Amino acid sequence: MQERRLKPLERTNETPGMSRAELAYERIETLLAHMELAPGAFLTMAELQARTGLGRMPVLEATRRLSDDTLLEVRAGRGIRVLPIDPGRERRLLRVRHDLERFAIEQACERASTLERSQMRQLASALAALIEDDTPLCDERIRRFNEIDRRMDRLVLKAASEPFVERTLRPLHTLFRRLGYLFLTHFGDEPLIRTNIRLHQELLEAVIAGRKPAADDVLSRLMAFAAEMMDPIETSLDPALLDAGIVPFDPE
After folding, report:
1. Alpha-carbon dihedral 24, 26, 29, 30, rounded to 10 degrees
2. Residues 79/4, Cβ–Cβ less than 8 Å
């Protein structure tokens, strides 16, 4: 059994006013995005309760939603399985994500309120501060970027104000945030992560200004960056990192 005796998730930067079930969903989502729940690992409900610090009912409701999102899989008699990373599937889903993301970005350019644009400016400033940070690339900075990216995604979807697109894109965002975390922690370097952060900043600035063609151009570059992550993940990483159910190969 995987993930025994792990520390509870650090509860920072959570969205205020959420129900306990939504809070459980968000905390598990964060654990997934940062590979703290290993792809392919089996968990018990008790382990997820311990990791989230929440009771059985909210965690149960969250696991049902995450199962519907194809992020977790509930298996009778075996527990809860974290869905493995499948680069082939995620290549296909990237095409779906690009089309839906373009729609959401265009809607946000048109419909974002003054308050939402103000919040976007705050996030753009936070991204600029990450770019200017001279400390060496480290896990903490990647996690900080992931948190800003999560808030950016939620804010754009809120501004777009289309629930169907939000329900479809949210799990896709988590899938690709996990993939990006894996890529940056194994293959990332300073120029690469700064370029990625800068693209997110440029996208926010285009949405704030309501410049749809500029936003679409930056989005296309971000989707190209995501596509380029696939090959090294597929060809250069130990498959056991993509699926904990695979026994690592021992050449000896």
Report:
1. -110
2. no
Whole-angstrom Cα distance, residue 109 to residue 206?
Answer: 8
Output the pLDDT for position 249.
Answer: 67
Using CB atoms within 10 Å of the CB of residue 221, give its burial: 0 to 12 exposed, 13 to 18 middle, 19+ buried.
Answer: middle
**pTM, rounded to two decimals:** 0.87
The second-level CATH assignment, the architecture, of 87-234 is Up-down Bundle (1.20)
Q: What angle do CA 176, 180, 182 make, to 5 degrees?
A: 115
**Tokens at residue 113, please?**
């309120």
Q: Is 1 in a helix, a strand, or coil?
A: coil
Q: For the chain, what percent of residues have pLDDT higher than 70?
A: 91
Please spell the DSSP secondary structure of 44-67, one letter per residue.
-HHHHHHHHT--HHHHHHHHHHHH
Q: What are the φ/ψ torsions at residue 43 (nearest 5 degrees)?
A: -130, 160
Contact criterion met (CB below 8 Å) for 146 and 177: yes
pLDDT, tens digit, 9 for 90 and up, residues 21-69: 999 999 999 999 999 999 999 999 999 999 999 999 999 999 999 999 9
Which class is domain 20-82?
mainly alpha
